[in-house]
Amino acid sequence: MRLTKITLAAVVALGSASFAETTAPGNIKFGENGGIELSLTSVAGDAASGRKIFMNRKKGNCLACHVNSDMAEQTFHGEVGPELDGVADRWEAAELRGILVNSKNMFEGTIMPAFYRDSGYNRILKKFDGKTILSAQEVEDLLAYVMTLKE
Amino acid sequence: MKITSLLPLAFSIAAVASVVTAGEDSTLSVEGEVFVTKIAAPAHLENVDEIFSGWTYRRDETQALQMDDFENPSFVFIDQALDQFEMVEGSAGKACSSCHESAEVFSGLRASMPRVNSAGELETIPELINNCRTERMGAEKWKWSGGQMSAMLGLIGLQSRGMALNVAIDGPAASFWEKGKELYYQRVGQLDMACSSCHEDNYGNMIRADHLSQGQINGFPTYRLKNAKLNTIHGRFKGCMKNIRATPFKEGSDEFKALELYVASRANGLSVETPSVRN
């Protein structure tokens, strides 16, 4: 009984990994303003998962630098970047995708990390070499969540 | 009569109140000695007008620990270093005290390090200590951030407590300083940040639960509540680099020594606070 459950889970995990289409960081087409029109994956973003990624210190950790009133239950909100309340009123989805993938295209010299870039780093720790901070699906989940931040 | 006796009381209440208000205007004093925790930036700093000790940005409870030597946990380690100073070790059968009368002879040293020696090398206090151990005592080197080294650094640094930091950056130091400056502004790691991203562009801001300081080194070695020990300068540099997912330079490397000189020069004018307390 136990065994079947585990195998089933493994098959499902494998399945979603091999069938979902994702765009590699190097193949992304940025618009003139740094935005990205096309989704990075074929699976629609999940806002609930995106909300978790936003606060997770090992994932987006967006809360390290941004105040977000939708997460008032979290004790510490950083003040390095602007407050993100109502941010989806200020930017289009394509622009926000661009900001998440590599905000440096929009904000020159920004401290905000590029969450979906896998090369061009200096002295990167070995275990992160060749990797992106977030996966393509995590970026889409996060975007779905950020799009809910309206006033 | 009554009024005069009340006056000191009013003063001490005011003093307590200023401790409670953590921030850029609070005053650090230890054993009656007032420290410079804020001063006009040294001329070489282009993007900062005023420099602040890291003490400024710590919580009231943490600040208070540094204001009383009986509360400051660093002194447990400094006491150990005092014993170590008398301890005979190595093939020459000598203790530090065989040649240095007491730790007090090192008064002023911490305030001017790192410096360039007559051979044109940039040298730091851990290297001077290890040089005595290997060349003069016939004893083993201490690890850069090991317990014995950081305790001895605490004891030696304490002899300069209250003195203004004043490292030389010109003459033979200039090329090391330039290299350190380059490293300070160089983006590294997967988070792609430089020391300046946090400690120059964002000091005073919260980064999640951390109140960012200017990343000054005038208080090192530092007792951290987080790991309950004395921490060295290079140990802290290493931690900051790892946090931004960068491969740190080695403790004692030419890179970290140059960075130490540059970062120290950004604190020129602040008081040496060794041993400081941080979270």
Brief write-up:
The complex is a heterodimer of chains A (151) and B (279). Chain A is mainly alpha-helical and 151 residues long.
Task: Please characterize this protein's 3D structure.
The complex is a heterodimer of chains A (151) and B (279). Helices cover 34% and strands 0% of the residues of chain A. Chain A is mostly helical. Chain A has a single domain, classed as Orthogonal Bundle (Cytochrome Bc1 Complex, Chain D, domain 2). In chain A, helix 2 packs across helix 5 and helix 4 packs across helix 5. Chain B is of the alpha+beta class and 279 residues long. Chain B folds into two domains: 182 residues, Cytochrome Bc1 Complex, Chain D, domain 2; 85 residues, Cytochrome c-like domain (Cytochrome Bc1 Complex, Chain D, domain 2). Chain B contains ten helices and eleven strands. In chain B, a hairpin with a 5-residue loop joins strand 5 and strand 6. In chain B, helix 3 crosses helix 6 and helix 7 packs across helix 10. Chain B starts with a helix and ends with a strand. At the A-B interface, loops of A face strand 7 of B.
Beta fraction of the residues of chain B?
A: 5-15%
Return the CATH architecture of chain A: Orthogonal Bundle
Query: What's the total number of strands of chain B?
Result: 11
| Largest interface, Cβ cutoff 8 Å | A-B, 23 and 22 residues
Helix content of chain B: 25-40%
Query: What is the alpha-carbon Rg of chain B in Å?
Result: 19 Å
The first-to-last residue Cα distance of chain B is 44 Å
CATH topology of the largest domain in chain B: Cytochrome Bc1 Complex, Chain D, domain 2
Shape of chain A: globular
What structural class is derived from the secondary structure elements of chain A? mainly alpha
Structural domain tally of chain B:
2
Estimate the strand proportion of chain A. under 5%
Question: For this structure, what is the CATH homologous superfamily of the largest domain in chain B?
Answer: Cytochrome c-like domain
Please name the CATH topology of chain A: Cytochrome Bc1 Complex, Chain D, domain 2
CATH architecture of the largest domain in chain B: Orthogonal Bundle
Uncertain regions spanning at least 5 consecutive residues of chain A: 1-18
User: Please, how many helices of chain A?
Assistant: 5
For the largest beta-sheet of chain B, the strand count, sense and barrel status come to: 3 strands, mixed
Strand ordering within the main sheet of chain B: 10-9-11
Instruction: Indicate the overall shape of chain B.
Output: globular
